[in-house]
Amino acid sequence: GRYSVKSGTSMATPHAAGAIALLRQYKLLESGTNLTAAQAESALRSTGKNITDTRNNVVIPRIDVYAALLSLDTSMPVISIVAPTPANATRTNATSLLMNISASESLGNAFLEWDNGTKTNYTMNRTGDGTAAFFNQSLSNGTYAYKFYASDLAGNSASTAARTVTVDTSVPQISVSSTANGSLLGNTNIS
User: What is this structure's pTM?
Assistant: First the structure.
């Protein structure tokens, strides 16, 4: 466990080179774009924390690679609706529904828009790196429209198509007519 302090351009150069390599690789994987050195430098400068050198009062940014990477992220997350979320146009007698989504990347926020005549947005609980869930309880009979919205850590947003689910807890009425000897007449009603 010994350590020592080193400073100067000999120590800063490998850090800056590594930061640029990370940003260039990220952009290549994200969109197939070859980031130029000037673009990488601009991202590092614009997102760094300004530090004043007390020896000469020169202000320079201390790089923040993660912030620079987020500034380059232009891709919307891809949202997938996953089980046990009901399929579109489902009819159910359940009065509680668990609504789940997953995304192609880490989520900053996720919302469920629930519409039973009045649109209400619910914040979903993030349940993992790219997943979120919302438990909708005490549903009354009726048809509900719903849609999911999510944004990634860089603020890029996406939404799903609208879906519907119908809650119907009414008990079916069945009537069967029979004769006195127990034979069945042709009269059967189910509603």
Answer: 0.75
